[in-house]
Design goal:
With 462 residues, the chain is of the alpha/beta class. The chain is 37% helix and 20% strand. The structure holds S-adenosylmethionine (SAM) and iron/sulfur cluster (SF4). Iron/sulfur cluster binds next to loops.
Length: 462
């Protein structure tokens, strides 16, 4: 059992280890996916997964946004034209039929997530119709025990929307806030009042959502430690169950709208560290526990309890309390994970539509994981979720000698051991309280592909 209140912020060490790295929502990361992975490969593994018959996690990508936030690194399509939804929805419904036809109908949907973009860009009727088709083709848990979640932009929803979402089956909700400071909001083109956010949270409570989570970003233009502290005070008053505090990933080569952010307006590294340190301390004082990479939750939240019991998992949505499911993903750019494979759908809407209209799945690329990939993924995710790893568990599962297999990685930890980020003994690795904020830098030592990544591929840890 781990003690969550033992994360210790050391700004000098964080500065020292501030290098770019992936967030490991998948391992290997999406940049390793291969174009020669075909629809035939996908179908083969999907059909084969019926033998293990793991429960299912369904992901739907709803990419539209009314206005673009300049910082955004998500796969989105900015448009004011609401008629664009209908043709996309009809392809999603067709894709549900194509995929579900290959999956045993008794496999339970344990998780469901609508991500974006902004899922509530869809009208209430469009959302109802998407969920109705999903429930018609897949086997949902009927006791509200599934983890059925949606990402909301409070500017793109009202109280009625929230009640519709609860009625069609969602029970967890996360919403973007980023920062309440007006100067920051103006610089990133996202104007969102506290009242708008508060109304949506209130409606979520009334509708009996099991968990309300808010997204914040630090590192945005004009942010200061004092200004962000004001935002955090307002956030605490809103009383969310969970908080995601993301480090702004500034990769203007990859995300065009970020070129509209003036780099000279970004906070310095020391200001960012001050923001992060103050935020971590303030959140702890107010009863939020650091789960791991960017995530905080109230002491009695199921995520904290799952972590204490060693039952936390990591997937494309971050951390999850539900065991390893096969993830079936639908919609443009969406990423799936089934058995030993990852797959990704077409990136461009026209290509996605063309393939679905041809009666094909919209697979663009993917990866068949080797035994070594599976092993490393397990180690990386175990460390990210529980800050320790017991060699014997991995040795038994993968028939290896841990210390021998990872001798290079273990050697590369020596400077980190000297800096008290972790300790290694004969049976396990333990991440220290100081190391917890640098977990991605630590696990990068287990990433076989890391050294080959060109500069600008991943964001910095801080
Ligand atoms: C798909 S968006 C959230 C849903 C909704 N569209 C909204 O904006 O409220 C998911 C979250 O990703 C985070 N995000 C987006 N771009 C980011 C970036 N460049 N760096 C760090 N976090 C980012 C934001 O906190 C955002 O709320
Ligand atoms: S942060 Fe949300 S609303 Fe803003 S552009 Fe990204 S997906 Fe759209």
């Amino acid at each position: 059992m781990i003690n969550q209140n033992v994360s210790e912020f050391d700004s000098e060490l964080i500065k020292k280890y501030d290098v770019s790295g992936p967030r490991y929502t998948s391992y290997p990361t999406a940049k390793e996916f291969r174009a020669d992975f075909s629809e035939k490969d996908y179908k083969h593994y999907l059909l084969q997964s019926n033998q293990d018959a793991k429960n299912l996690s369904l992901y739907f990508h709803l990419p539209f946004c009314d206005t673009i936030c300049f910082f955004c690194a998500c796969n989105k399509i900015a448009t004011k034209d609401r008629t664009k939804v209908s043709p996309y929805l009809s392809r999603l419904l067709a894709e549900i039929e194509l995929q579900s036809a290959l999956i045993d109908s008794d496999r339970k949907v344990e998780q469901l997530h609508w991500g974006g973009g902004t899922p509530t860009f869809f009208s209430h009727e469009e959302m109802r119709s998407l969920m109705a088709k999903t429930k018609q083709c897949f086997n949902f848990l009927d006791n509200d025990e599934g983890e059925y979640s949606i990402e909301i932009d409070p500017r793109e929803a009202n109280a009625e929307t929230i009640h519709v979402l609860r009625e069609i089956g969602f029970n967890r909700i996360s919403m973007g806030v980023q920062d309440f400071n007006e100067k920051v909001q103006k610089a990133v083109n996202r104007h969102q009042s506290i009242a708008e956010t508060e109304n949506i949270i209130k409606a979520s409570r009334e509708a009996n959502f099991k968990s309300v989570s808010l997204d914040l970003i630090y590192g945005l233009p004009f942010q200061t430690a004092d200004g962000f502290h004001d935002t955090l005070k307002k956030i605490i008053n809103l009383d969310p169950d969970r908080i995601s505090l993301f480090n702004y990933a500034h990769l203007p080569k990859l995300f065009k709208p970020q070129r509209r952010i003036n780099e000279t307006d970004l906070p310095s590294l020391s200001e960012k560290l001050a923001i992060l340190q103050n935020s971590v301390e303030y959140l702890n004082e107010h009863g939020y526990v650091f789960i791991g990479m960017d995530h905080f939750a109230k002491e009695h939240d199921e995520m904290v309890l799952a972590q204490q019991k060693g039952l936390l998992h990591r997937n494309f949505q971050g951390y999850s309390t539900h065991a390893d499911c096969d993830m079936i993903s639908m919609g443009v750019t969406s990423i799936g994970k089934i058995g030993p494979i990852y797959s990704q759908n077409e990136h461009l809407m026209d290509d996605y539509i063309r393939k679905i209209d041809d009666g094909q799945l919209a697979i663009k690329k993917g990866l068949i994981l080797t035994q070594d990939d599976l092993l490393r993924r397990d180690v990386i995710h175990q460390l990210m979720c529980h800050f320790s790893i017991d060699f014997s568990v991995i040795e038994k599962k993968y028939k290896i000698d841990f210390k021998q297999y990872f001798s290079q990685a273990l050697e590369s930890f020596l400077p980190m051991i000297d800096d008290d980020l972790l300790s290694i003994n004969s049976s396990c690795i333990e991440i220290s309280p100081k190391g917890r904020f640098l977990i991605r830098n630590i696990v990068m030592n287990f990433d076989k592909y890391m050294k080959q990544a060109p500069e600008g591929t991943f964001s910095k840890a801080i």
